[in-house]
Structures are given as C-alpha cells and as structure tokens.
Amino acid sequence: QDAVSSEGDDSKEYDAETQKALEDIDACQNEIDALNEQASEEILKVEQKYNKLRKPFFEKRNDLIQKIPNFWVTAFVNHPQVSALLTEEDEECLHYLTKLEVEEFEDIKSGYRIKFFFDDNPFFENEVIEKEFHLGSSGDPASKSSEIKWKEGMDLTKRNKEITKQGRKRLHEEPRSFFFWFTDNTDASCDDIAEVIKDDMWPNPLQYYLVPDVEVEENGLDDD
Amino acid sequence: QDAVSSEGDDSKEYDAETQKALEDIDACQNEIDALNEQASEEILKVEQKYNKLRKPFFEKRNDLIQKIPNFWVTAFVNHPQVSALLTEEDEECLHYLTKLEVEEFEDIKSGYRIKFFFDDNPFFENEVIEKEFHLGSSGDPASKSSEIKWKEGMDLTKRNKEITKQGRKRLHEEPRSFFFWFTDNTDASCDDIAEVIKDDMWPNPLQYYLVPDVEVEENGLDDD
Ligand SMILES: [Ca+2]
Ligand SMILES: [Ca+2]
Ligand SMILES: [Mg+2]
Ligand SMILES: [Mg+2]
C-alpha cells in the first residue's frame, strides 16, 4: 500500500514527476493485485465445486479397480515415466498395492497428498503410506512421506543401494526405485514422479492398464 | 468412449468379471473426463473475465512506466534471476527498452507472448521484438522469437560468444546473455526466464524497480 511513499527510511530521492508516476503505478498495482486475488478466489471455488462433483466417480472407480487383480502394478509398469523408476523388487512389492488416492487440500494451492494402500505383504507393516506436498514455512514447496516399517531384511531402499554398490546391475544409472522416490523429500519443487501420478496417472489410470498389445501388432498378426 | 470394448483388434482376453469392471471403470472415466472438461471451460471463462478487467490497469501502468527513465532496465538489474542473465552490453542495450507487454492468448492454455519495445538504439533496427510460447504440432510446448536485425558489428549474441571464447570474462560460466535467452528456442518447456517474466516481473515490476537501498542499511546509517 505504501511502496512508494515519499516519507520513511527506505525511499530514494526521486524528482517530483517520477515520484508522482511511481505513486500512480503503485495505485494501479493495488488494483491489479486486488483483481488477481479475486480471480484466485473464483478459480478456487470452481475447482472446489468440481472436486466435489468428481469425488463420487473417483470413489466408484476405486471400488471397481479393486476387483481387478494387479490393476495398479500393471498401470505403473505400462506408464513410461513411472515404469522407468521401478526395480524388479518394486514391481513385486507393488503387486500388493490395492488402492491409490490423490487428495487435493481444501485450499488447492496449498498442496496435495498421494495415498498408497497395500494388502498384507512380505515387505512392510504399513497398510497405507502417504507422500504429501505443501508449501513449507518459507513459502517454498516441501514434501514429507510416511515412515515405512520395513520387515526384517526387506528394506527396498537399502537392498537396492547394496545392489548398486556392488555394480551387479544398473551400472551407469543413478540409483532409482519407487521407494527411493517415495522417501526422498530433498527437492519437492521438482518432483516429476509425484506430478505424473497426480496429473496423468490419477486422472486416467485405465489408459495405462489397457496398453495395446504391441507385440501382436508388431508381429503383424492383425488382419486389417 | 470405447476403450474397453470387447470387440476389435487390440482387446486382450479378460474374464467376464474383469471385463465388466473395466467397462464400468471406462464409464466412470467418461464422467470424470466430462467434468474435467467443464471445469477447464469454467476456469478459462474466469481467467478471460479477469484478463479483461486487468487490461486497462496494465495499459495505464505501461503509460506511467514510460514516464520513468530506465524503469525496465532497473527492474531487470534488480531481479535476482533476470539479473543473473545480463551481460554489461545487455544492460547497455536494455536502457532503450521502453515497454514490456505480456499477452496471454484468448485460449489461455494455448500460450502467451512477451513483447519488448525499444527506442531507436545503436544495437538493432527492430522497434519491437517478441518471444512467443505455444503448444507445438506435437502438443508439446514450443517457442519462437523475432529475428533481431542487428546493426553492423552489434550482434550481442556473437560478441558475447567471442568474449567467452577468448576467456576474457565469465570463465567457468556457461555463456549467457539476455539475447541468448531471447533467441534460444530449443527447450520451451523449461524456459525459466520466460516464466519469471510472465509470472513474477509482469504482475508486479514496481517491487523490482523499488529495491531498498541495501548499502545504506548495511552501513547502519538508518536511525531506527
Ligand atoms: Ca533507507
Ligand atoms: Ca481390440
Ligand atoms: Mg491389485
Ligand atoms: Mg526506459
């Protein structure tokens, strides 16, 4: 409100004409800021309205998905970016993934949460693990994830590291694994995998489950 | 609409229960897609409404800014990310920048254009140069920029390269310049500078023009 006041400690000395122009720019800027604020509020209301309207369909979809064995692991394996993250052990573990949920927070700009629900499995005790993205105290994006209660000797982040150290596989690649991604909260502003899950996988997982049977087509067994 | 039809070439053979669940998921998905489409249209309408409401204030602001000598070059030099891009020659040239405009296209998702208006200057003939971002034919972000008609010997992209080659300055740094950025259209999906201009500089340039007088404060000459 007072960015160009001629009083106060941090004002430089401008000539009268410049000072007047700066004050008028400041007034314009206040109008623009108020309109931006109003626009954000209206857009938030639209998003909240549609989140409510979409919710029953997402819930029904999740119920239906649970009838299909290995739906999520299949969708993950067929998704180009998510698949690139998966080790063989990740795939084994993700056979127990029965439900995925993406929740946007009520104030959508403030963040979202991805929930992974698992059946009883040989790898860890948790029935659900969550990774959450929000604005941290500094205003920058931050993330946190559930602590995974690994069963003895089954910690997939450690097992994978050992394999990498010994160079048995994935030479020349940086160590990656679904669970490295899940537990890594060092750069929430650039979490491509989380964004792919939220903006591509969650809006339409069926397209990744139903990937066309490429081998058949490549082998020319189709008649048309 | 027909993603899980049991007819057709690329359907795998699912058991009856799975097939039924897939068809029901597909129906859910169609409802979700329709709601997404509606939400996008409503949000677009809100954005268009506020673009119209903001426009007269942006125009008035641009008129006022032109009364202030060196407004834009000062804002650029004071902006942390834009400043990091500027060579001394860029700064010299940007003293002739009289007006900046960011235009979002009517269908906002399809892109935007940044226009730089210049006074007569010793560097190039153009009165306005534009860099435009849009979705390319493949659906991926693409950009294009005006061809700059450099005056003889004044091409700032070439002069900077020579300086860099001879290692006179900016050793250990990658060659950068406002005009390298402007003419570089190789990775439109990651153009941080364009995004900073659109989302930070253009919404409120006054804050960068009016940077506090850090030296005075650091020297403790303020009384309070
Ligand atoms: Ca001061
Ligand atoms: Ca088929
Ligand atoms: Mg399953
Ligand atoms: Mg000027």
Essential attributes:
9 helices; 224 residues; Arylsulfatase, C-terminal domain; binds magnesium ion; homodimer; four-stranded antiparallel beta sheet; 2 domains; alpha+beta; binds calcium ion
Q: What proportion of the residues of chain A form beta strands (DSSP E)? A: 5-15%
CATH third-tier fold name of the largest domain in chain A:
Arylsulfatase, C-terminal domain
Hetero groups in this structure are: calcium ion, magnesium ion
> Largest interface, and how many residues on either side?
A-B, 51 and 50 residues
Radius of gyration of chain A, CA atoms, in whole angstroms: 25 Å
What is the CATH top level name of the largest domain in chain A? Alpha Beta
Major sheet attributes of chain A: 4 strands, antiparallel
* Estimated helix fraction of chain A: 40-55%
Mean pLDDT of chain A: 84
Number of helices of chain A: 9
CATH homologous superfamily (4th level) name of the largest domain in chain A: Nucleosome assembly protein
List low-pLDDT spans of chain A. Answer: 167-173, 215-224
> What sequence of helices (H) and strands (E) makes up the elements of chain A?
HHHHEEEEHHHHH
Query: Could you give the distance between the termini of chain A?
Result: 69 Å
Secondary-structure arrangement, i.e. CATH architecture of the largest domain in chain A: 2-Layer Sandwich
Decide which structural class fits the backbone of chain A: alpha+beta
Return the domain count of chain A.
2
User: Oligomeric state of the chains?
Assistant: homodimer
- The largest sheet of chain A has its strands arranged as 1-2-3-4
